[in-house]
Design goal:
- This protein is α+β, with helices and mostly antiparallel strands and 336 residues long.
- The chain is built from 9 helices and 13 strands.
- It is elongated.
Length: 336
Amino acid sequence: MTCRAAVHFGSPPRDEIHTWETTPVLFHGFNGIDSTGGSSVMSPEFECLGHRWSLKFYPGGEHGSQEGMTSLFLRNQSEESIEIIFGFKTVNSKGLHAVNLHIENKQFDPIGGWGVLDFGKRSVIEGALINGSLLIEVRMRRTDSIPVDLPITSEATFCRTMLKLFGNEESADVVFEVEDAGQQGGNKRKRTSTSQTKFHAHRFILKQCAPDLDALCGSADGTVSVPIADVKPDIFRHMLYYVYGGRVANDDLKLHAKELIDAADKYGVVNLKLEAEAWYVKTTEFTFDNVNRSPSLRGYKKLRPPQRGGDGFHGGESIGSPSESAAERCPRRTTC
């Protein structure tokens, strides 16, 4: 089967500006797959919309499915989250649809997924097999991407230009002197030694993107020096790089989430604080102690306690309790 991209004449409507991508996934030897309730098979990974995906299929249904129904989940196997509209359909040898489901906007967490408990009746799916194989077409499109009629090239060029100014000593008119306190000494006593790491910046960028940092520079003409004593140099560098339009790597967000939250909160870099908080929530089990120790988290009102069987802090297949109505065929999240 060959899939081709759509060809457009003129400008598409606003709700059609994102491109649909379709991937056929085949489960061969369908009748030989274990159909015991709760048993599943996972397809090989495939790429779509810049992410890696797989299908998790339950030939006999997941726990909580209606009698005689199958279950199907789409899993994001990448380390980045993505928001998409997606759907599934099974196609028989005549090209007719045996099952066709459409699911609206869903946020896929890293290594997580969504699906349906009651995908389709097993008897219907068995009647749609092609030479003993089940063909499922997975279609999806982004809802968080930039519309195609925006000047993508110009925006990308502007971001690259901004990042070229990062650390440019020749054009800078601000020097942040970030103290790095260390300890030296013998066995009996230790004395603190302080070194400085300098970061060059530009007032016109700080004024627009980080007003709290700009306020530290005062109103004097010429190049000014600003001492910073409460943030580690590597954390300050991440924050300043973000102000210039750069991105903090996921590994650094996970490793330094709490420090980035505190620094971004103190200096008003709101979006960085939100990103770091998202990683902190994913990787931390909250207690009163660790919340109270972080000044920037004390006012965080929406902390979720761990939940049994849900999509909280400890993983597991989060597909709802068996007491919920499976007849509604609502999309469910999975994190396993």
